Amino acid sequence: MTDSAHTAQAGTPAPTGQSAKPAQSGKSGKSAPTAFRASLLTFHGDPAHAPHGAVFHEDGLLIVEDGRVVAADAYAALAARLAPGTPVEDRRGKLIVPGFIDTHIHYPQTDMIASPAPGLLPWLDTYTFPTERRFADANHARDTASFFVDELLACGTTTALVYCTVHKASADALFAESDARNLRMVAGKVLMDRHCPEFLRDTAQSGYDDSAELIGRWHKRGRQMYALTPRFAPTSTEAQLEACGALAKLHPDVFIQSHVAENTDEVKWVADLFPGHRSYLDVYDHYGLLRRRAVYGHCIYLDDEDRKRMAQTGAVASHCPTSNLFLGSGLFDFDKADSAGMPIALATDVGGGTSFSMLQTMNEAHKVARLGGHHLTATRMFWLATAGAAEALDLGDQVGTLKTGAEADFVVLDPQATPLLARRTARPESLEELLFAFALLGDDRAVYETYAAGKRVHRRGDARGHVPGHAKIAA
Ligand code: GUN
Ligand code: ZN
After folding, report:
1. Per the record, which residues fall in region Disordered (predicted)?
2. Banded model confidence at residue 470, pLDDT cuts 50, 70, 90
3. Could you tell me what percent of the chain has a pLDDT over 90?
């Protein structure tokens, strides 16, 4: 199907077949309203608990102005409200959903995705640390950040919680790239002052100073937000965790991100390094690092007490199924986490994760839950990857939703993206069946367009930035 746009005429828009430019919101300037006619999906609550949590309009209209959602409803209910002359982008046959939120990803690991190792700790030593060393070079950091952001947008991810490297310039590069495209991103420089190569170490003091400087430069500048990022307990001394806790207290609205209980060898290591603590999670608790906007990758080897603590503090479990399967880390217990009431969100964890796509992440999340005897519906997974994540991150009024006033970050999904997807979605019996097909069969090919703050930032098939040169393959 080809796109067309028409303009609203006295409340009864009629297609003209003309093509039109997408909404141009500009970063700060005002823009005229634009409307999108397509199927729409948004959420008013967790579909597992709220009977009408998922709101779907087969023939819907989304109106966007100045980078924000003005209204999203059935076409029949909204069309008459369109001001005459408003361009209407015709995306009938496609599905608009809020932009995806990836709650845990490492941008410096883009070039080492799909590097196999017999488990997490050898993988870190063999691939991760040498790869992250290259980010001492600010040009390399800028080049990778640009590719990384292209890749996120191609997959429909408009917000991510991003790990940079220990180098301050790596965070500057990521924020500058995101700011230039007006994306809502959360990122932070890694804190790491032991148990890693000398070339990747900071100190408790320099890590504190660099993080404080980056908060001053980037936190709440445009749509950027900072995350204090102690890599994981084994690579931080008590002094560094203490300094991180102090900074967290000084800045109650910054994010905190780290890893916890991902791998059995790692869990044993933490028990040796921090003998006085009840559990791995308790180490972070001790230093004041469990709270709202604290996001912990993996959470596989938690016990009931830990889960209760996550629920009490509002800290978020970031479930990374493609990574957990690839590194053989283990299976996240979705049922126990859910029953404990702890906030849960989904993430890719690239480069431990094997795909940038949140659709592929849903695919594997469904299977991991299935192995634990839990049926994770596609409707719930779409919620977890959009409004559920936004609410868990305290960003529920800004992103992950098509509600009035929200930032207009959204994705146009194409059920005809591949011949198989087209066949499978030809006669869906329910919304769940349609979403399930997207989750199980979809990837970046299913993302037709991505919009951030009302402006198109990706269109499938359009030329992208740059292609890196090929290095010689060592024999
Ligand atoms: N634990 C500490 N660092 C990392 C990392 O880079 N990736 C993953 N998956 N786990 C970690
Ligand atoms: Zn990770």
Report:
1. 1-32
2. low
3. 90
